Amino acid sequence: MKNIRLHGIFYALLVALAIVTLTASAFGQGRSGGAGGGRGAGAGNAGGPPPGVGVNRGLGNASSQSNGRSDDGLGNASDHSNGRSDAGLDRARMASDNLHSAERDLRDHPGVANTLHTNANDLRSGYQTALLTNPNLKFGQYVAATRLAQNLGTRFPAITQSAILDGLASGKSIGRTLQNLGLSSQEASEAKKQAEAEIKRGRN
């Protein structure tokens, strides 16, 4: 009977020892797993993108966005610059075409310069200067403005060649410009007819 009791106690001790051993083992694995997990997480960082990659990615996005704006800005500036360049070329081309027409007019009608009490060289030079401001100015308009100023300037000091040319450059007609400078509609019409008749005689 005593042996049975001792055997039972011994068996219970073995069971308890086994439980303690298993618990300690599980606890140790838990700590190891936790440490491993910590190291694993660290290793994961080490094995993932290098430090700063996230920041670089952000900078890359900002750079891309900045490049987009920069490209747009440069594109707009380029477009605007090209627009100005194209406009400048068009103005120069128009002025050149008008000057060539004036050259032909002066060759074909040398009397025009005499009508304006000047010579062909001075008339050509004055027209070239006017084209710098208004490349769309026709030679006939320049001649008319010059003659009108000669005819009207004494009685109407505001009516000068420059004032008439400024009106034409702003898009106004000669008649409207003369009215803005002090003439009535009838006076402007009569002044135009007189100047045109005088210029026509010079062309014959």
Describe what this molecule looks like in 3D:
This protein has eight helices and no strands. Helix 2 runs antiparallel to helix 4, helix 5 packs across helix 6 and helix 7 crosses helix 8. The N and C termini lie far apart (159 Å). The relative contact order is 0.06. The N terminus is likely disordered.
Characterize this entry briefly.
The protein is mainly alpha-helical and 204 residues long. It has 8 helices and no strands.
Blueprint (SSEs and pairs):
Elements: H1 2-47, H2 53-108, H3 111-115, H4 120-133, H5 139-152, H6 161-169, H7 174-180, H8 185-203
Helix pairs in contact: 2-4, 5-6, 5-8, 6-7, 7-8
* N-C termini distance: 159 Å
Low-confidence stretches: 1-7, 22-60
Structural class: mainly alpha
Number of strands: 0
Describe the main β-sheet briefly.
Answer: none
Instruction: Spell out the helices and strands N to C.
Output: HHHHHHHH
Q: Label the overall shape.
A: globular
What percent of residues adopt helix (DSSP H or I)? over 70%
How many DSSP helices?
8
The value of Rg in angstroms is: 49 Å
Rounded mean pLDDT score: 76
Estimated share of beta-strand residues: under 5%
Keywords summarizing the entry:
83% helix, 8 helices, 204 residues
